[in-house]
């Protein structure tokens, strides 16, 4: 799943709401949601952090149907002042940053086709709602995500490329150490069965989180991640949102990128 959207074409079309704001989905769409939710719910216990589980409990997402965004908004708004924003499958960087800066999380209102159950490059409603929205009930995570949007809005195109790595290695693919052990908080992991098992296995590298290192780390969106950064505590994200992240970006640009830990993508 990719966090930063671009305006290139997608084969998926977002479902539009009616005059009452209600989005109609097909029976197949609801069945796909149910399959995805039940499959992930069965494996996340003991693997995801408590903040995510608390958020999931607060959201009380239905298993047998795709939730309406207004249902999710009521919980997020009461918890951290966030809301969702209905968007097409792919959106420009400017729109993405504007939404985050105003505490609105972009959600594409389509769900993957059954033949793409295990992997989808575009972020669908399952990835956004099940993967990310529970963490947006956590004040530390919510604050960092809003700060990130404000920084991205003011950044140059080159700075945005560096910022994308920070987002990818925290919001999408972050791990955190807890008193109960190492846990997942990144939505890109939580919405993927393979990545959920892979992330906590001995196959990838686990590095202590360092924001400058994260900004310098190349990634590919179409493979299991070879490297994850591990927070000491979710409050680290809150602390980071109070620091000069753009100075860190400049430092990362001066130091340059690390060597990729993956082969180049085949042409």
UniProtKB/TrEMBL annotation:
Residues 1-267 form the Biopterin-dependent aromatic amino acid hydroxylase family profile domain. Pathway: Amino-acid degradation; L-phenylalanine degradation; acetoacetate and fumarate from L-phenylalanine: step 1/6. It is an enzyme of class 1 (oxidoreductase). Keywords: Iron, Metal-binding, Monooxygenase, Oxidoreductase, Phenylalanine catabolism. Fe cation binds at residues 127, 132, 172. Gene3D superfamilies: Aromatic amino acid hydroxylase. It holds the Pfam family Biopterin_H. Its cofactor is Fe(2+). Its EC number is 1.14.16.1. This is Phenylalanine-4-hydroxylase. It comes from Halomonas salipaludis.
